Each structure stands twice: as structure tokens, then as C-alpha cells.
Amino acid sequence: MKGKQLIQTAAVLGMLAVGIGAFGAHGLKDILAQTGRAETFETGVKYHFYHSLAIFLIGILALVKPQWKKLNTAAILMVAGILIFSGSLYILSLTGITWLGAITPIGGVAFIAGWALVFLAASKN
Predict the structure, then answer these.
(1) Using an 8 Å Cβ cutoff, are 49 and 14 in contact?
(2) Among 96, 82, 80, which Cα is nearest to 43's?
(3) DSSP letter at 84?
(4) Is 97 left (phi over 0), alpha (psi -120 to 50) or beta?
């Protein structure tokens, strides 16, 4: 993906983070209270939003520093992290399917790897 596409991806992911967070706080309030997993849902939303912002900034960096080739892979890993980490927490919170907690760390590793690639991209140049 190019910088412009990364910014657009971040914008969509950011919109989703706000929408999912609002829906969780209002529309799913009773369900999350019943499952006792409102905090888990909130954690998913936080990491979703933090990494949407990170992808946005990576998109800007990619426009300014197109020679930093690792930025694209970093953004892809962060998208994967949102899908796996936040997605598994959303589903776990709503369904109580506890085995999903076993895949959540895979998303966390994707986040860490994405940040490491941002570091490496900046270190090479």
C-alpha cells in the first residue's frame, strides 16, 4: 500500500473504532454487563484506536519517506493486529468463547512486530 492508501485504511479503521466503541458503550451495555467483559471489550477498542492512529502516522511517514520500505509491512502487521487482537476481544466479550483468548496474543505479537519495523525503517536511513 502507498501512503495515501494507508491513510485511507487508517481513516476507515478509526471510524470503525469509534463506532464499535460507542456501540459497545450504549447498544451492548447490557450484554457486556451480563458477561462481565465490558473491560475486555474496552481494551479491544483502545488497541484498535491506538493502532488506527499509528497506521495513519505510518501513512504520513510513507508519503514523506517513500524509501522507508518497511513501513508498508509495519502497517499490514498493525492491521492484522487489530483484526486478531481487538477482533478476538470483541468476540470473546460478546460470546464468552474463552478459547479466543488463546489467539489474542498473536495479534499482540503483530502489533509489536509492526512497531519494530517502524523502528528498523527509521534506523536504516
Answers:
(1) yes
(2) 82
(3) I
(4) beta
Q: Using CA of residue 87, residue 40, residue 48, residue 67, what is the dihedral sign? A: negative
CB 62 within 8 Å of CB 70: no
pLDDT at 125: 60
Amino acid letter at 38? Answer: A
Is the pLDDT confidence value at 124 over 80? no
Beta strands in the chain (DSSP E): none
Among candidate residues 97, 57, 100, 49, the one with its CA nearest the CA of residue 75 = 57
What residue type is 72 in one-letter code? N
For the stretch 24-82, pLDDT in tens is 888 888 888 888 889 999 999 999 999 999 999 999 999 999 999 999 999 999 999 99
